[in-house]
């Protein structure tokens, strides 16, 4: 094929993509529909003479550069419904130096890169753009150092979160970050999205558990910032540029994690309250009475609690007719000796009239049963698929009113759809699941538009902990000012002038 024929083919393909985008530009799942028109990996011919592909194979070896039908379905999507395109290749480096060489090669050839971790994201942040090189961190897994004196652990970016948790526990420590996807998600992805999870109320977001990072920039430059010190004010702390930037400014390859003193269990209770105002009163009372040891404060509205008790098949610890429920958890070194203080806190809350009923877990098995109710959301997503999974935050004092407004939206405009509400709430986080959603390319956008308008009016965030990725970038302006977004673009241009790192995400 002559160069002119190749150029004509590229132009026709770009026109095809533009037409497809225009058809679906008002559909929040446009990426899903567009991918249906994309060729599958099996049918896409691979041109092994491409210089970038030749260089990558020379660098990593043929076994670590997947192409064509070698690219399995798992690399094409994350846990969101977003779909992108077919990547040129999937590369699986085993070291920081190999990551640096891959980025250098792609930088030299203007080749787009999609970094991927455990692919458990819910915003499409790891979905490949068509023709990109997927940089999978799955081969970079392991703990490289554990310093008991400084209470730190240094890990490779592809290390699963659960592996880190278990290693910390075996060494007598506790790693605070915890997500339902702990067995699949990777720490690099957790940090690149600044994950939240179940313990934020006590330990903070993912960035609070990081002391240092090693990062590779777009041109292959390695930033070695593996700081192990809690205090280091030698200029701006550059690691924060990369935590939460979803792989658009650099690729995290290693992290120094902060470990906490070990815990041996928890005092756990499921509590029924009179209304959301009582929830806020109870939260402040518990935090003060337990000296800041509240480790989790999960709120479930009645729709969620009823669904959870029916899905798990377990006996409901409390009746299903109460206005609102809280799962509260107090971790400690000696839960048995702290049980009396925990129970006294609950008794005072009942005396104040905030709590109507309570069930205290009497064993580790009962604690797990209580948490099974909260974690049953994964089954709800399957039963009601396809769903919209909202990850919102507003000031804690406004959460009750915000949920009321969101319920009004459902009643007035989408009464034919189901909706359940729950959240971490102690950190201002509300989750809502709406579905099943008709696959008409319209309904999802309409629901999101109205939900995010409510969040904007409450000065909240369209993404509390899941990131922006592909799915929420059209709503970024609801939570970030024009000046903030302009600065994000300046940083992106300065650090990745070729726009090769995860292009199309966030901005």
Q: In this structure, how is the largest beta sheet organized?
A: 7 strands, antiparallel
Strand order, largest beta sheet: 15-12-14-13-17-18-16
What is the number of helical segments per DSSP (H or I, 4+ residues)? Answer: 15
Q: Count the E strands.
A: 18
Our measurement of the CA-to-CA distance between the termini, rounded to an integer number of angstroms, reads: 36 Å
Average predicted confidence as pLDDT = 90
- Binned, the helix content reads 25-40%
Shape: globular
DSSP strand content: 15-25%
**Based on helices, strands and strand pairing, what is the structural class?**
alpha+beta
Cα-based radius of gyration, to the nearest Å: 24 Å
pLDDT < 50 stretches: 1-38
Explain this structure.
With 507 residues, this protein is of the alpha+beta class. The chain contains 15 helices and 18 strands. The protein has a seven-stranded antiparallel sheet, with helices on both faces. Strand 17 (418-423) and strand 18 (429-435) form a beta hairpin. Helix 1 (3-24) packs antiparallel against helix 2. It is globular, with a radius of gyration of 24 Å. It starts with a helix and ends in a 12-residue tail after the last helix. 47% of the residues are buried. The model is unreliable at 1-38 (pLDDT under 50).
């Amino acid at each position: 094929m002559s160069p002119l024929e190749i150029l004509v083919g590229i132009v026709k393909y770009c026109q095809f993509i533009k037409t497809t985008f225009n058809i679906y530009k008002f559909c929040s799942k446009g990426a899903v529909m567009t991918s249906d028109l994309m060729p599958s990996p099996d049918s896409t011919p691979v041109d092994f003479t491409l210089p970038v592909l030749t260089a990558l194979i020379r660098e990593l070896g043929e076994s670590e550069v997947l192409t064509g039908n070698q690219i399995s379905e798992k690399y094409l999507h994350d846990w969101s419904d977003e779909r992108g395109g077919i990547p040129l290749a999937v590369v699986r480096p085993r070291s920081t130096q190999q990551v640096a060489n891959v980025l250098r090669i792609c930088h030299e050839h203007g080749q787009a890169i999609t970094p991927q971790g455990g692919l458990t994201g819910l915003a499409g942040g790891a979905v490949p753009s068509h023709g990109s090189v997927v940089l999978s961190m799955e081969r970079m897994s392991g703990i490289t150092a554990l310093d008991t004196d400084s209470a730190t652990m240094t890990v490779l970016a592809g290390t699963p979160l659960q592996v880190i948790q278990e290693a910390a526990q075996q060494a007598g420590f506790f790693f605070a970050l915890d997500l339902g996807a702990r067995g699949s998600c990777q720490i690099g992805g957790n940090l690149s999205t600044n994950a939240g999870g179940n313990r934020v109320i006590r330990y903070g977001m993912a960035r609070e558990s990081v002391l240092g990072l090693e990062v590779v920039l777009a041109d292959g430059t390695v930033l070695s910032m593996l700081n192990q010190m809690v205090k280091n004010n030698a200029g701006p702390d550059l690691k924060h540029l990369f935590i939460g930037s979803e792989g658009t400014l650099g690729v995290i390859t290693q992290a120094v994690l902060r470990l906490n003193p070990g815990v041996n269990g928890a005092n756990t209770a499921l509590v029924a309250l009179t209304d959301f105002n009582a929830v806020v009163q109870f939260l402040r009372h518990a935090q003060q009475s337990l000296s800041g040891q509240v480790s989790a404060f999960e709120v479930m509205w009645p729709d969620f609690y009823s669904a959870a008790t029916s899905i798990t098949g377990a006996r409901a610890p409390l009746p299903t007719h109460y206005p609102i429920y809280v799962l509260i958890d107090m971790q400690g070194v000696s839960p048995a000796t702290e049980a009396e203080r925990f129970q006294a806190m609950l008794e005072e809350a009942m005396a104040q009239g905030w709590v109507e009923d309570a069930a205290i877990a009497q064993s580790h098995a009962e604690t797990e049963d209580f948490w099974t109710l909260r974690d049953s959301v994964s089954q709800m997503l399957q039963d009601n698929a396809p769903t919209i999974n909202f990850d919102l935050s507003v000031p804690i004092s406004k959460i009750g009113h915000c949920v009321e407004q969101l319920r009004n939206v459902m009643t007035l405009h989408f009464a034919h759809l189901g909706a359940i509400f729950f959240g971490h709430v102690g950190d201002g986080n509300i989750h809502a699941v709406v579905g099943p959603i008709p696959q008409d390319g319209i309904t999802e956008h309409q629901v999101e538009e109205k939900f995010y308008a409510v969040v904007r009016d409450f000065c909240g965030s369209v993404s509390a902990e899941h990131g922006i990725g592909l799915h929420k970038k059209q709503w970024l302006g609801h939570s970030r000012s024009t000046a903030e977004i302009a600065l994000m673009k300046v940083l992106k241009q300065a650090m990745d002038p070729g726009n090769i790192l995860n292009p199309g995400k966030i901005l």
